[in-house]
Write a structure and sequence with these properties.
With 370 residues, the chain is of the alpha/beta class. It contains 13 helices and 18 strands. Bound molecules: pyridoxal-5'-phosphate.
Length: 370
C-alpha cells in the first residue's frame, strides 16, 4: 500500500506499562475494558497486549464486541454488560461470555438461553448505587425473590456497580456508593449467594479510591495512558501513565498567504500576519472535532502550528508560520508526545479525552508499535 494520508500509531508498550503501573498499586485482578474498539485503539491488538501484560479479564459493552474476541481465538474471561433484551444470549453462552444481569427482563432471557442451550449462564449481578443508569434499583427486592427460585440454574460469578463521580477527589459520593454496594452485597450473601468477583472500580477509582478495588478493577482510560480527568486528577504524566495513541497526517499543501486572509468555511479564521498555512489531510469525518478552536492543532518537528478556521470534513488548516520548512507531502503530528495531546484536543472542543480517542474513525489505519 502507498503511504496513508493519515494514520493512528498505537504504542502497545505504553499499554503494557500502564497495566504494570496498576499491578504495582493494587492486588486486585485487572479487567481490561476494550469496548468501542478499545477506545479507538483497536480491539484485538489491545486485548492481546493486555492479557500478555497481566490482565486476567476483558470487559466489553456489547455482546458483539465480546463475540469478536472469541472469534479471534481469545479465551480469557470476558464480561459484556450492555446486552438489551433480544440480544443473542444463546451465542453468548456457547462462547463462554459472562453476562451482566441488570434487570428482571434480562434475567429471564438469560435463564431461557440457559435452558435452550443446556449451558449454565455465568452472570455478574449489576446494582445501581448512585449512577442512576445501569443495574438493579427498584427491581432489587423482586430480583432477590426470583433469584431464590432460579439460583440453581445460574453460575453467579460477579457482583458489581459503577461509579458516577470517582474522578472528583473532593466528593464523598464514591464512599457513599461503596456503602450502599456493601449493603446490597450483604443482602445477597444472606441468600447464601457468594459471588467470587466483586468489582466496582473504574480507572478513576483505581487511582484514587483504593478501598474500592475489591477482587477486580476495571481499567479503561488509564490503560490507554490518559487521565480520567486532567483538571481534578492531573495529567497522564502526573499519574505515571503513558498515552498509547498518536496520530500523524500529511500536509496536502503548504501555501503562503498575506495577513488578514480569511480561512475556511464561514471565514472564521483570519491570519494575523503574513504566514504559511498547512492544509492537513484529516477532518471531522476522521474524528477531529469540528468545534475545536485554535488552542489545538498539529506539530512539525516539535513546532506547534495551531488550527485556523473551522475543521472541514476531510481536512483542516493550520498556521505554520512564515519561517516553517514544512513541505507538502510531509507528515505532521496531530496527537503525540511532541505536539498536542488528546487532552489538548478535548479542551479545545469542550469535551473529554475519552470522546477524542473513541471517535477517531476506523478509516484511519492503525499501526502498532510492539
Ligand atoms: C467504560 C467502563 C469502565 C472503564 O471506565 P474508565 O473510566 O475508562 O476506566 C469500567 N466499567 C464500566 C461498566 C464501563 O462501562
Amino acid at each position: 500500500m502507498s503511504e496513508p494520508r493519515a494514520y493512528v500509531e498505537i504504542n502497545l508498550k505504553a499499554i503494557a506499562s500502564n497495566i504494570a503501573h496498576f499491578k504495582a498499586i493494587s492486588d486486585a485482578q485487572i479487567m481490561a475494558v476494550v469496548k468501542a474498539d478499545a477506545y479507538g485503539h483497536g480491539l484485538l491488538e489491545v486485548a492481546r497486549t493486555a492479557i500478555e501484560s497481566g490482565a486476567s479479564w476483558l470487559g466489553t459493552a456489547l455482546l458483539e464486541e465480546a463475540l469478536l474476541l472469541r472469534s479471534a481465538g481469545i479465551t480469557t474471561p470476558v464480561l459484556a454488560w450492555l446486552t438489551p433484551p433480544g440480544d443473542d444470549f444463546d451465542a453468548a453462552l456457547h462462547q463462554s461470555i459472562d453476562l451482566s444481569v441488570s434487570s428482571l427482563a434480562i434475567l429471564e432471557e438469560v435463564l431461557a438461553a440457559g435452558e435452550r442451550t443446556g449451558i449454565t449462564p455465568r452472570i455478574h449481578i449489576e446494582v445501581d448505587t448512585g449512577m442512576t443508569r445501569g443495574g438493579f434499583l427498584e427491581e432489587w427486592d423482586s430480583f432477590l425473590v426470583r433469584l431464590r427460585e432460579v439460583k440453581g440454574s445460574l453460575h453467579i460469578v460477579g457482583f458489581w456497580t459503577h461509579f458516577a463521580r470517582a474522578d472528583e477527589p473532593d466528593s464523598d459520593f464514591t464512599d457513599q456508593q461503596m456503602i450502599l454496594f456493601n449493603v446490597l452485597l450483604n443482602a445477597l450473601q444472606s441468600e447464601a449467594i457468594y459471588p467470587e468477583i466483586v468489582h466496582a472500580a473504574n480507572s478513576a477509582a483505581s487511582l484514587a479510591h483504593s478501598g474500592s478495588h475489591k477482587q477486580m478493577i476495571r481499567l479503561g482510560i488509564a490503560m490507554y495512558g490518559l487521565s480520567p480527568d486532567v483538571t481534578t486528577m492531573g495529567s497522564s504524566a502526573d499519574l505515571g501513565l503513558i498515552p498509547a495513541m498518536s496520530i500523524k497526517a500529511k500536509l496536502v499543501n503548504v501555501k503562503r498567504v498575506p495577513a488578514l486572509s480569511r480561512v475556511g468555511y464561514g471565514g472564521t479564521g483570519v491570519t494575523d500576519r503574513d504566514t504559511q498555512l498547512g492544509i492537513v489531510c484529516m477532518g471531522y469525518s476522521d474524528g477531529l472535532p469540528r468545534r475545536a478552536d485554535s488552542t489545538a492543532g498539529v506539530s512539525y518537528n516539535g513546532e506547534l502550528a495551531r488550527l485556523i478556521g473551522r475543521v472541514s470534513m476531510d481536512q483542516c488548516v493550520v498556521d505554520l508560520g512564515a519561517d516553517s520548512t514544512a513541505l507538502a507531502g510531509e507528515y505532521v503530528t496531530v496527537i503525540g508526545e511532541d505536539g498536542f495531546s488528546a487532552d489538548d484536543w478535548a479542551s479545545a472542543a469542550g469535551t473529554i479525552n475519552y470522546e477524542i480517542t473513541t471517535r477517531i474513525a476506523t478509516r484511519l489505519p492503525r499501526i502498532y508499535l510492539r
